[in-house]
Amino acid sequence: MLIGIAGMVGSGKSTLTRALAARFGLQHALESVDADNPWLEKFYAGGESAMREHALPLQLHFLATRFETMRRIRGAGGSWVLDRTWYEDAELFARGHFEDGLMTSLEWELYRRLYVELLHSPAARPPRLLVYLHAPLETIVARIRMRGRPKEKDTPDAYWAALHARYERWIAGFRACPVLSLDVREYDLVGDPLAIEPIAARVRARLEPALPQTELFLPVATHGVAAAR
């Protein structure tokens, strides 16, 4: 079984991924956004020219790591929580880069062909549930400015506004699997790890009896920082 976590940069996907995996005793796979991603900082570092130069390599990196993650999940078996789905990579970020002129038509066609191959691979079955994290644009931008990665903090608000609008259009038409929407203003897993309990109850209600039936101990309060992307 696979649970996907989707949402804007700054919505706290990685924090929720870890919390749900710990709460239910599931395995989890995080997005490749830190030291193992050589393209992300370059993409955000130099304005629009840098975005044009690095958009395709960045999206190919994410696509390659999706292939690797799905192969690992298929090989290991069991139940997983996935930080961001391949749907978002292609249908929001890569397509958005093409529509905004950051990728050429040839680059988009190359990416699209590889994405179609991923969709047709045995490992890329839709999640049993997509947990979608959402909030008004001003909330998301404030989170990015407060605790995002350094280069993301300097990205113009217009970029985040365009991405936020794409997310709203995308989720309105998403039909690959059931969706559970969470307003990120209604909980704070960083300040209160016990806030996972009502979220876990909603997830369990949507997935019974697929989730493991053995309840784990309630989480102990710890300090952490939510991932930005």
Description:
The protein is globular, with a radius of gyration of 17 Å. It has 229 residues and is an alpha/beta fold. It is built from 9 helices and 5 strands; from the N terminus they run E-H-E-H-H-E-H-H-E-H-H-H-E-H. Helix 1 packs across helix 9 (196-207), helix 4 (86-99) packs antiparallel against helix 5 (105-119) and helix 4 packs across helix 8. Helices cover 52% and strands 10% of the residues. The protein has helices at residues 13-24, 40-45, 47-76, 86-99, 105-119, 137-147, 150-153, 157-172, 196-207; strands at 2-7, 27-29, 80-83, 129-134, 179-183.
Secondary structure topology:
Blueprint lengths: L1 E6 L5 H12 L2 E3 L10 H6 L1 H30 L3 E4 L2 H14 L5 H15 L9 E6 L2 H11 L2 H4 L3 H16 L6 E5 L12 H12 L22
Parallel strand pairs: 1-3, 1-4, 2-3, 4-5
Helix pairs in contact: 1-9, 3-4, 3-5, 4-5, 4-8
